[in-house]
Structure formats: structure tokens, C-alpha cells
Amino acid sequence: MNNQEPQGTDDTGDVIVDGRKRRKLKSKAWLEFTREEINGVWKAKCMWCHIRLGGDTRNGTKHLHDHLAICQSRACRKGLKQSTLKMSTAADGTVSLENYVFDQNVARKELALMICLHEYPLALVDHAGFRKFCAAMQPLFKVPSRNTIRTDIMDMHVVQRESIVKFFQQLSSRVAITTDMWTANHQKKGYMAVTAHFIDDKWELKNFLLRFIYVLAPHTAEVIADVLHEVLVDCHLERKVPTVTLDNCSTNDSMMLKMQDKLPLDCLMLEGLLLHMRCAAHILNLIVRDGMSIMEKGIEKVRDSVGFWCATPKRHERFEKMASQLNIAYTKRIGLDCTTR
User: Fold this and answer.
1) Helices 104-118 and 146-170 sit at what angle, rounded to 10 degrees?
2) CA–CA separation, 90 vs 301, rounded Å?
3) The domain containing residue 315 runs over which residues?
4) Are residues 268 and 189 located together in one domain of the fold?
5) Bridge partners of 17?
6) pTM over 0.85
7) pLDDT, tens only, 234-259
8) Residue 93's CB: how many other CB atoms inside 10 A?
9) What are residue 234's phi and psi, to 5 degrees?
10) Helix/strand/coil (H, E, C) string of the chain?
11) CA nearest 237: which of 176, 160, 161, 163?
12) Contact 143, 125 (CB under 8 A)
């Protein structure tokens, strides 16, 4: 074996090996590789993990760059990742040790998912206590700023939205839609939630929240129909919708008449006779409210009483104390009912 290392460069920058001029190694990959001639064949030796790859300059250096991107020894020593051991438990209860590599990008993605899942405020990443906790758990993790985590969430939303659209394009079954309007008390603005329900190939019921979208006022039947149709077209579902379930109100009745004109008639079941489905929970609520109208005065007195005791924490503590003095079991907190559910 005859190992030869570059011994310098001449005035033109070419590499000199044993007095022979070699072509200048211009690729940045050679900053982290050394060339060796083994049995007349040039090899490139990684400075980090010492693996030998093809070193003939005529073959290019793409394979060298690819190796540097996945070289764990390089990443660990440069401080980009932290390699350690973690314990995992198998199905039979045995515990084994596995290699664990810290990845900043994976940690940032999980942080963004946590914020979305639990509806935490974006300002969480700016809290001093949260940053100290992250530093104690993993010193290598750099907590992103509020704007950065917002950008990560928006990028994830775009990726997930494209993934859902592609999924529905390949889905062979129909997709039922439920939608409802909601008004934010603090903003006094109306929003529409659109959810898709379908049975997958494994005969399991699945549902996706397609859109939570702001709807401009006034919330007329035509405006709501345009927004709902736009959502269906964006998700390529306008030809796969069997039914749309909504609350039982006159505005939705008019809106669904307009939706029948917007959707392809040949793709609707029974030419659209089953398209409009009324929410059973809302209908039952209307039936019960109508039946209880004969007790309206008594119900109003009870509702006013509950509202009084729930108005402030001090009143609620007084209510609990009175129940305790009368030896009445008080296991559930009193609360006002929802007028529509």
C-alpha cells in the first residue's frame, strides 16, 4: 500500500504530490476529505469518520457532498447534533439501548405541533421560564422566536393542505360535509368551520377539518354558499359530496338551494335530493325547547339563579359553603346551558 498526501501547491494553485503536478482541487468537499492513492486508485478519506470513497476527480464530488450531509461523526463534532443513547421498551418488556441523534429541525417541528395541538399562544416561546426549561432539557436546542415559530406553523399548514388535497384526489369514496357558523365574542366577527367525513379503505370513519375561514358580513345565504363552494373547489371535493349537514334554519335552507345550482348535478345522489341534511342535535334541541315552553317561567327563574351564582368566584364559593352546611353533595360545578345545543 502506497499512501500519498498532497504536499503543497505551486504558483498556479495546482496540488503537488511527490514532485508531480496534479489538478487543483477546487470543490469545497476536499476541505473535509484527504486524497490517498491505494494500489494505483485514488481514494477520498473523510476527516470525520475516516471512511474511504472514490477519489478520482474525473468522477466529480457529488458523492462526497452527499456523504458529508449524512455523516453523523461530522455533525456531532461540529455541534449540529448530539449523539447519545436512549432506552426503549419492546413488546415483550425487554429494555434495549438505541442510538439517539438530536436534530434541531425535528425539535422545532414538534414545538410547532405542540402549540397547534394545545392552542398555546405564540408568545410561549418568548417566556423566560419556557426557555430555561428547554435549556435544561436540551442545551443544544435553540428556541425560535415568535415570528419564526409562526412562519414554521404557516409552512406546515401549506404542506398539510397540499397533502390533504392530493389525498382527496385519490380517494375513491364520497366525502360528507358538515359546516356551521361561529361568532367570536371578542371580535364580533363570523367564522365558518368546514369538516369532511368519510370511510377509508379499512372501513374506518375519518374526519378532517378542511377550513376555519373568516366570512365577511352580512352572512346572507349567497355569501355563505359562495364561501362553502370555494372551500369544496379548493379541496377538489365538488364532485364527491353526497350530503352537507347544517343547522335547521331558514338561512341554511336558502343557502343549500344555491349550492345545488353550483355543484355538478350529475355527481349528486338522487339529483341532489339528499344533499341538504339537517343537524339532528339542533332539531332535538328545538323540539325540547318547544316542549318546555310551558315551563318557560320556571326555567327562566332557575337560569337566572344559576347565572347569579356563577357571576363571580366569591358567589360560587358561597354557594359551595351553603351546600356543605345543608349536607348536600356538590360534585359538579353549576353552569349555564347553551341556548342552541
Assistant:
1) 80
2) 60
3) 295-341
4) yes
5) 20
6) no
7) 888 888 888 898 888 888 888 888 88
8) 6
9) -60, -35
10) CCCCCCCCECCCCCEEECCEEECCCCCHHHHCEEEEEECCEEEEEECCCCCEEECCHHHCCHHHHHHHHHCHHHHHHHCCCCEEEEEEECCCCCEEEEEEECCHHHHHHHHHHHHHHHCCCHHHHHCHHHHHHHHHHCCCCCCCCHHHHHHHHHHHHHHHHHHHHHHHHHCCCCCEEEEEEEEECCCCEEEEEEEEEEECCCCCEEEEEEEEEEECCCCCHHHHHHHHHHHHHHCCCCCCCCCEEECCCHHHHHHHHHHHHHCCHHHCHHHHCCCEEECHHHHHHHHHHHHHHHHHHHHHHHHHHHHHHCCCHHHHHHHHHHHHHCCCCCCCCCCCCCCCC
11) 176
12) yes
The tens digit of pLDDT for each residue in 265-302 reads 888 888 778 888 888 888 888 888 888 878 878 888 88
116 in Cβ contact with 152 (< 8 Å): no
Flag whether 212 is in a domain: yes
- Quick check: 33 and 47 in contact, CB under 8 A? yes
Residues 300 and 270 in one domain: no
Task: Provide the CA 275 distance to its chain's centre, in angstroms.
Answer: 31
User: Considering its fold, how many domains does the chain have in total?
Assistant: 4
Q: Which three cell numbers stand for residue 207?
A: 374526519
Residue 82 in any domain: the answer is no
Q: What value, to the nearest 5°, has the Cα angle with vertex 270 and ends 169 and 229?
A: 45
